[in-house]
Design goal:
This protein has about 375 residues and is an alpha/beta fold. It folds into 2 domains: about 200 residues, 3-Layer(aba) Sandwich (Rossmann fold); about 100 residues, Rossmann fold. It has 13 helices and 14 strands. The strands form 3 sheets. It has a 7-stranded mixed beta sheet with strand order 7-6-8-9-10-13-14, with helices on both faces. The N and C termini lie far apart (about 90 Å).
């Protein structure tokens, strides 16, 4: 009798476990988990937080229509502060939480750190802002996509603008030693040297987070550079330009989408005036872009920040691909991203074999009267 009772207890316990596991699996399968990874704190939060808001708005609209494949979309939001060591931690955490696809990361360094982890888990990762060329061009990360053009295109635009429009011949190329900034600077250096029109009179890296950049500013001055091309982010760029202008240096300052951010203007103040920066092409006249911006204004009471439209488009593209694929299966979604167009605020996009968005490019902007204005 005792043994019989024991057997019944084991059977009952097993049934309870199986039932709980089945219910849990069923519940998990009833939602699509979209990871949103990026800098949500620290100096570069102004790049990452607009992406969170973009994802929130897209998902809210989609869920109001019944979701994707009859399932609600839920967001798993994780902060990597644009630091590579945190990027890998975030990737591991999102995978442990059962993420289906990831929109992010924001900075190239943290994106690269996370990609191998996602690759091993067959998770697609799509960034609205990571522009380092090897992320798609090396072939190492077939799970990576982006809704922004790469740095080789950006550097070419900056160099052509400096040489052909500003008509300078002596250029100092400065960078922040990171994957993004140094990578862009190396492309700029190559394009200047290959052009036959200009000369790199200084190629120098600065230490991110330093208080004083007077040493490199002095080197720029001694080099007699007519223009600076800076590869990196706004915290360092704002300090460099402020110190240059305080020394009454009228050298042109040309930078990248890491500087084409309102925070740069707020920090640099009057010294930001006249600075040039490349950034995603203006699609604000696109009806979908107008609607997205209005939705942001209504929900958050302000205009969106950097890479908002790129993140909006990335979120739409990922969820559209899941819907077209009929599942979250890695191979099926990958195929859908490359064969099906998605209507987005950036236009009608799909992705090439490397993962780069077709038809997306850069434009040049200048700070005029305290705002960035596209140079036609």
């Amino acid at each position: 009798m005792k043994n019989c009772f024991k057997k019944l207890f084991i059977v009952a316990t097993s049934l309870i476990f199986i039932t709980c596991f089945t219910v849990g699996t069923s519940l998990a399968a009833d939602v699509i988990k979209l990871g949103v990874a990026g800098a949500h704190s620290g100096d570069l939060a102004s790049y990452g937080l607009p992406s969170v808001k973009a994802a929130e708005l897209v998902v809210k609209e989609i869920n109001a229509r019944g979701g994707i494949l009859g399932k609600k979309v839920v967001l798993l939001i994780e902060d990597d502060a644009c630091k590579p060591e945190l990027g890998s931690n975030v990737a591991t955490k999102l995978i442990s939480e059962g993420v289906d696809v990831v929109m992010g990361h924001i900075c190239s360094g943290s994106t690269k750190a996370a990609l191998a982890i996602y690759k091993d888990a067959n998770i697609i990762c799509m960034s609205p802002s990571a522009t380092n060329p090897p992320l798609t061009q090396s072939g190492d990360y077939p799970n990576f996509y982006r809704t922004i053009a790469s740095d080789d295109a950006q550097a070419k635009l900056e160099v052509d603008y400096a040489l052909d429009v500003l008509k300078v011949k002596k250029i100092a190329v400065i960078h922040d030693k990171g994957d993004y900034g140094k990578g862009l600077a190396e492309f700029a250096k190559k394009y200047i040297e290959d052009s036959g029109k200009g000369k790199v009179v200084l190629f120098e890296g600065v230490t991110p987070g330093a208080v004083d950049y007077s040493a490199v500013v002095q080197k720029i001055k001694r080099s007699k550079a007519e223009a600076v091309i800076f590869g990196g982010y706004h915290p360092e760029a704002s300090k460099v330009i402020m110190q240059m202008r305080k020394k009454r240096m009228k050298t042109y300052f040309v930078s990248d989408d890491g500087v084409k951010d309102d925070t740069f203007i707020k920090v640099a103040g009057k010294y930001a005036e006249g600075v040039y920066a490349s950034g995603p092409m203006d699609t604000s006249s696109n009806p979908l872009a107008i609607a997205a911006i209005k939705a942001h204004q209504k929900a958050y009471g302000s205009d969106p920040g950097a890479f908002f439209l790129n993140a909006y488009a990335a979120t739409q593209a990922l969820l559209n691909a899941i819907e077209k694929a009929g599942s979250t299966d890695y191979k099926a979604v990958s195929k859908a991203l490359k064969t099906n167009y998605a209507e987005t605020p950036l236009g009608k996009i799909k992705f090439d074999a490397r993962g780069d968005a077709i038809g997306i490019g850069f434009a040049m902007y200048q700070v005029q009267n305290g705002v960035y204005v596209e140079i036609k």
